[in-house]
Amino acid sequence: MQLIEDAAGDPRNAQFLCRACQLAYLPEAEGVKGFRDDLGLAAKLLSIDNTQVYIAESPEHIVVAFRGTEDPTSIDGLKDWLLTDAMNLLVVPEGRLGHDLSAAGVGAKFHKGFVDAIAEIWDPLRDDVEAKMKQSDRPLWITGHSLGGALALLAAWLFKRRFIAIHQIYTYGAPMIGNQKASEAFNREFKGQIFRYVSGRDPVPKLPGLSLVANEFTHVESAHVLGTDPMTNLAQFVGAIGSQAVKGLLAGSLIDEVWKHINDQVSAHFLDSYDGLLKK
User: Fold this and answer.
1) Tens-place pLDDT, residues 226-260
2) Do residues 31 and 40 make contact, with C-beta atoms less than 8 angstroms apart?
3) Cβ–Cβ contacts within 10 Å for residue 272, how many?
4) What per-residue confidence (pLDDT) applies to 212?
5) Which of 37, 62, 134, 181 registers the highest number of CB atoms within 10 A of its CB?
6) pLDDT tens digits for 130-188?
7) DSSP assignment, residue 59?
8) What mean pLDDT value characterizes the chain?
């Protein structure tokens, strides 16, 4: 497997970085071996609280691969972030990363949970990548699955604010990170550099959301839909359950019903599913 520097969105890049995301879920000893044996990269794991990222390099490339939730076979830990408290978490960013994210412009809002998660690990990640780039200026690839995909996008923005050039960004099954203003800013800054892979039956990219009518969260461009059943929005996905929503809003016990429906389809979210679809 190899990265093709001059080919934006090349399927070989998508497969390579999907494998990096799979390896990012492994404990450090196994992960370091996997990056070396499978991808030819020397890797190290940064882990602070609940946020983990591998930084991997070769003489030709640097790859930053974010882990999603701690358990790659469950999304239960994301229920509050993606459904129950979703709208309360859509905020104008504050704190030490607030200044950099506010550069997205007036009205740009981001998911506070994702911002807090990248803030946990940002300083050592930035320092390590800056040091590697000073040793040898190489293409910087950023990737992540699920929650890791959301963190990959935020990290790309923060790196660019530090004048560290981003080569390409690949995400797999990533949720939405902010509102329309935030997404528009990312689309401008990373035009032709974001490759957002989505399985049609994967429930996570349809989240966060509590409204089936006018969700404030939106995705960045551009989506590469995998599979033959592209259900593109939450209302379409929850079907008959959603018809019980009052004025399109999910609340109370209906949230639990929707979450059960999401979990019934969650196998489409796992990286093995994405890897198989990419190889077809």
Assistant:
1) 886 656 555 666 655 555 555 555 566 666 777 77
2) no
3) 12
4) 47
5) 62
6) 999 999 999 999 999 999 999 999 999 999 999 999 999 999 999 999 999 999 999 99
7) S
8) 86
Backbone angles phi, psi at 70, to 5 degrees: -60, -35
Task: Report the Cα 119 to chain-centroid distance in Å.
Answer: 15
* Adjacency order of strands within the sheet including 140-145: 42-48, 51-57, 62-66, 140-145, 168-172, 194-199, 223-226
271 or 246: which leads in pLDDT: 271
Note the pLDDT of residue 264: 73
Instruction: Judge contact between 162 and 197, C-beta under 8 A.
Output: no
Which are the contacts of 164, defined by CB distance < 8 A and separation ≥ 6? Answer: 129, 130, 133, 140
Q: Exposure string (b/e) for 106-139, b if CB count within 10 Å is 16 or more? A: eebbbbbbbbbbbbbbbeebbebbeeebeeeebe
How far apart are alpha carbons 81 and 170 in whole angstroms?
22
Strands 178-179 and 140-145, bridge-based pairing = unpaired
Q: What is the pLDDT of residue 217?
A: 83
Tally the residues of the chain: 280
Other beta carbons less than 10 A from residue 59's beta carbon: 7
Sheet of 110-111: strand order equals: 90-91, 110-111, 178-179, 217-218
What the block records as the tokens of 137 is 């200026």
Structure tokens, 94: 């504050």
Whole-angstrom distance, CA of residue 161 vs CA of residue 175: 23
Rounded CA-CA distance 53/125 in Å is: 8
**Could you tell me the pTM of the whole model?**
0.89
